[in-house]
Structures are given as structure tokens and as C-alpha cells.
């Protein structure tokens, strides 16, 4: 007779206890065991017996598979994703050893994951300082730039926060039981929703009035924006602990950098409530990443949906990794997210040959484009304008362009590539100062390190002529 398989559920049990808001002593009291025994279970120093598994399921009304079926799976997937980094390429790392580590040493696993995330943040900070020094010839100065701080925090984690996705998914199930966000907020928090004219809102688009137990919304917002603002308010009400826990993983030099990051995480949580991870991940494959169709299915805007597509990197449930950028007509970048390894210009303007800078000529029309960088890397992008503001005659509107893209090896999964041969790629650069395509007629500045030819005898048709040396 085969030996009984021992069940170690330390990380899952600890997560369950924290989700329930219990101390080890609280759980021990509920289960009629000692607190030290709970501690041993959480550290995987003791296996979980069938009797204790049943007691847990009955006490906390759980499906036993919640503990028995997924013990350490999330941590294993996260660690395996980290170990794919090229710096580990020469180390033999069998999958079984990874599973053993996460199962038997959850504390060490968590320490390694935190250490790697910190390493990624420092690498990105170093790249920022190096890029600025290279381009300006001076000292890097964006270490205290709050926007750069926030972008580094998100980029180091590939804009993916599974704990927020899990919490939002649970909230979304509750919302579904009350038909919509308005009903849920009323039933769960006793908050009514009122829509008021912009003049009454006095510059706000959303305001929580605790005295009257109301959430006030600007009635000029479109339906998708109203739902997003309600989801955002709900995230602040119910996911503050989860957001604080994620934020605590970072180190911020400026208060503004921390506040910008908190706002980004709250918006992430709001999008995850409207577009729950599991349902959204299934839908993107069924609809082949058709952003407009997905937006209609989930009642979101084009930009909200495109933004959500960049977050689908939950370990073990990954989808196509995307990058995202939002620019205004002057080329200023107001949002930038990278999960696809796209080398964004960290300083200075982007390449004018990229369609994201040209779609203002064709408002709200999706423009597709294959891109090829000087080193031969290929990406596929879609770009379209989006509008913020408006809602009534005379209300100010802001037109911006967004681009969403992925590496060439993933492009075949997108509905947009069906009539787009990869051979027709547009040669672009990161930014003129770092691009050495000497034949480019759109160049605005010479590349670093190239000598410009004099034009007293001959003037070329290009903006600059360069010597061969």
C-alpha cells in the first residue's frame, strides 16, 4: 500500500488567516489547538492532517481544495518567473527544486522575491540616471522625481499585483450579487450615489460625503468613467490594507512619489473590480485582444481596457505582455507602462515615425503598425486617440493618444495582425539622440558620438550629414 502523501499548506494557511483578519491565537482558539501548532503548520514544520483540514473547512466555510489543491502554487509560479531572468541562465534550476523551496521554506522564498524586486527597482533607477547623464553630459537628477519614482516601482513589478487582483476578484463576486456597483455600495456601506452638475461639484468629479452617506459624481462623466470612479471609491473603502501592503514593498524618496504610486495602485484595483482577472483573461483570448469588443463586454472605456491588458502577468496565468504609453499632441508622456521589454525614451521625445504621434489626424480610428528598432527587435502596436473631459457644451476636453503593443513573437495572437504582414515594419528609434539611423529624414537631433559634416561645400537632403568615423 502506497504511503499517505503528506500535505503541507503553510503559505496558504497563513494567507487564509490574514484574509480573515485573525491572529495565530485567534485561529488556534477557533480550531481548538495551540497557537504554537498553528505556527508550526504555517512554517510547514507540520503536515496538515485530514482531521484538521476538515475542521478548517467546517469552521471557516471553505472548499477544502482551497487549501489542499493550491498550496504554494502562487509562490512557486512567482519564483519560477523570477528565475527566468537571464542572469540565472547558467544555473541549473529544476522545477522540482523550486517547488521544494516554496513548499518547505516559504519565508526564504518571500525573502528572495522581495530581494529580486528591490534589485529590479535599483536597475531601473540606474538606467534612468545613466540615460540622463549620457544625454545631458551632467549628473542624473531624476532620483527625486516623483513621477520617475512611481514609474520605477510599477516597472520593477511589471505592473502586475496578484494580491490586488485576488482581493478585487472577491469584491467583484459580491458586486455581481447586487447587480451593480451602486447596489453593492448601498447594501455593503450604506452609501447612495448622486449625480450632480459640474457647477455644483466645484472642480471635483467624485466626492465622498460621509455626513450624508453619499458618493457624489459629476453628471458630465460618461458611463464608463462613472463606473470607474465608483470602483475607485470602493477600492479605497475595502482594499486599503492590500494597497498599503504592496506600497510597503517600495522605498520612496519623496512623499509625492509615494502618493502617485498609491493612486496608481488604487486605479489598478478599481480596474480589477470592473474587469476581474479570471473572467478578463478568458475574454481576451476568446476575442483575440480586440480592445473595443472587450471594452463593450466589461462596460469600460477603450483606455481603461488597454491599460488593464498590461496587467495580465499573474504568475501561472500570464497572457500577452503589453507595453502602454499615453501622449498629448505636444509629445508629453503622461502615462507609461512596460510589460513587454519596449525601450521607451526615458528623457527627450520619442520617435516621430511611430504612429502614436500621428493618430491625432484620424481621431478615434485604430492605427496598426509594425515597428523595428535599430538592433532588429520587432514590435507590433495599435494607436488611437482618447478624449478626457467634455460631457456638455463648453466643457473643456483633452485629446490624447495611446499606444498598446507587444513583442513580435506574441503578435499573432492579436486580431489586429490578420492583415498586417510583418515585412512592412517601420524603422524607428528610441529617441533621436540614441538612434543611429543616419538616413532618417525625420531626425530632430544628431545621435550621440557622430561627427556632423560641414555644409559649406555640400548640403545633403537629410537634416544632418555625418562622417564615417
UniProtKB/TrEMBL annotation:
The keyword DNA-binding applies. One of its GO terms (cellular component) is cytosol. SUPFAM superfamilies: lambda repressor-like DNA-binding domains. The keyword Transcription regulation applies. Keywords: DNA-binding, Transcription, Transcription regulation. Pfam families: HTH_3 (PF01381), Peptidase_M78 (PF06114), ScfRs (PF09856). Residues 13-67 form the HTH cro/C1-type domain. Signal peptide: none annotated. GO terms for molecular function: DNA binding; DNA-binding transcription factor activity. It comes from the Bacteria. InterPro entries: Cro/C1-type_HTH, HTH_RamB, IrrE_HExxH, Lambda_DNA-bd_dom_sf, ScfR_C, TransReg_Diox_bact_type. Belongs to the short-chain fatty acyl-CoA assimilation regulator (ScfR) family. This is DUF2083 domain-containing protein.
